[in-house]
Design brief:
Helices cover 40% and strands 26% of the residues. The protein is α/β, with parallel strands linked by helices. The strands form three sheets. Strands 3, 4, 5, 6, 7, 10 and 11 form a seven-stranded mixed beta sheet that branches. The protein has a three-stranded antiparallel beta sheet with strand order 1-2-12. Helix 8 runs antiparallel to helix 9, helix 9 runs antiparallel to helix 10 and helix 10 runs antiparallel to helix 11 (328-351). The relative contact order is 0.14.
């Protein structure tokens, strides 16, 4: 086909635009792959009714577990303040990330060592009293923070200032280093006392001499120094994202057929006019003479309804399509749609209704 012939085919006339939009045309099988962004639910559900949350640092009650390779992998107690500061910064980083939900009133609580709170049951009673007095509906607790720093360039000690301006000691390095962080998080609702999550988050970061790292989460931090504190912050941010719905790119295939009416319908779909595309496909289905054409149109209509987030009609076409044509593609569409229906119900619990 010469370039001059493209004026008779709207879909080909838009090819340059479609390529920039991430849509690729496969001429051999007369299909087009459409990309779309869909909202996925968070792995952990923080119910919509929860509005006021306390982010609690309980690491003062955890066993000291810092290990540094330059000390022959022996536990170090010289940097106890480093863990204290890192835990506080981790809690703040988590709270800042959770602000993306837009519905939470988050407050950070640091509980210092108290012999009367050594037992977990005693600490939970203490938190319950806080919940009653201050109206907290959930507690996100950092229960432990441990780490390892590996480097051959340890040069001694350096002094940093914590968020309150108090000095504390940190290890200093003249070259690259590898830092590993492990954090234990637990979420409980109040007053139901339901454990919503228990998770051990891990983060590994490698830094160059100047503190550079290619890690995207680390590079989203406001104050980057290539430090253990930064690694603790990045680990907390990644854990926070387990509580936040996220966007994901998915792809669906539609058939473009061999005639101008088919291409016109596909052209409507590719510019986002899915309602018009479905209407055209339904008309074509009534006139289709061959079984394979009917199957392809049924597939397109199913995808068109999904693109409009009309999951009930999309599922109906997927199930009826399998009964009529016995094609495995309809079973796969049915599975995807059932997943999206379940996810939509979960999103309703996490951020409220997402469909119009």
């Amino acid at each position: 086909m010469s370039p001059s012939d493209s004026k008779y085919h709207p879909i080909l006339g838009r090819l340059q635009f479609l390529a920039s939009a991430g849509i690729v045309l496969f001429f051999g099988c007369h299909t087009v792959t459409v990309s779309m962004e869909i909202l996925r639910p968070a792995p952990i559900t923080l119910p919509m009714e929860i509005k006021k949350v306390a982010v609690v640092d309980l690491t003062a009650f955890a066993q000291e577990t810092f290990i540094y390779s330059y000390e022959n992998d022996r536990p170090s107690t010289r940097f106890r303040e480093l863990r204290t500061v890192s835990a506080e910064l981790a809690c703040k980083a988590l709270a800042n990330e959770l602000q993306r939900l837009g519905r939470l009133n988050l407050q950070i609580i640091i509980i210092p060592m108290d012999t009367s709170l050594r037992l977990e049951t005693a600490r939970w009673k203490y938190l319950q009293k806080l919940g009653t007095d201050s109206g907290y509906q959930a507690f996100i607790c950092l229960e432990n923070l441990e780490g390892r720093i590996q480097s051959n360039s340890y040069i001694g000690l350096a002094t940093q200032l914590d968020p309150f301006g108090y000095p504390y000691q940190v290890p200093a390095f003249s070259g690259s280093r590898h830092i590993e962080v492990r954090q234990t998080w637990r979420i409980r609702s109040y007053p139901e006392n339901v454990e919503l999550d228990y998770y051990v988050a891990e983060k590994k970061l490698s830094f160059l001499r100047d503190g550079f790292s290619a890690d995207q989460v680390y590079n989203s931090l406001p104050d980057r120094k290539g430090s253990f504190e930064n690694a603790a912050q990045a680990c907390a941010v990644e854990y926070a994202r387990r509580l936040i719905p996220y966007w994901q790119k998915v792809e669906r295939k539609i058939y473009t057929g061999y005639s101008i009416p088919w291409l016109n319908a596909a052209d409507s779909a590719l510019v986002g006019n899915w309602k018009d595309a479905v209407a055209q496909w339904e008309k074509l289905f009534k006139k289709a003479a061959f079984r394979f054409q009917k199957k392809q149109l049924y597939h397109n209509i199913c995808v068109g309804y999904e693109m409009q987030e009309d999951f009930d009609n999309a599922l109906r076409y997927a199930q009826n399509g399998y009964r009529q044509f016995r094609a495995g593609s309809f079973k796969r569409l049915e599975a995807l749609l059932l997943q999206r229906i379940d996810e939509a119900a979960l999103l309703d619990k996490q951020i409220g209704p997402v469909r119009q």
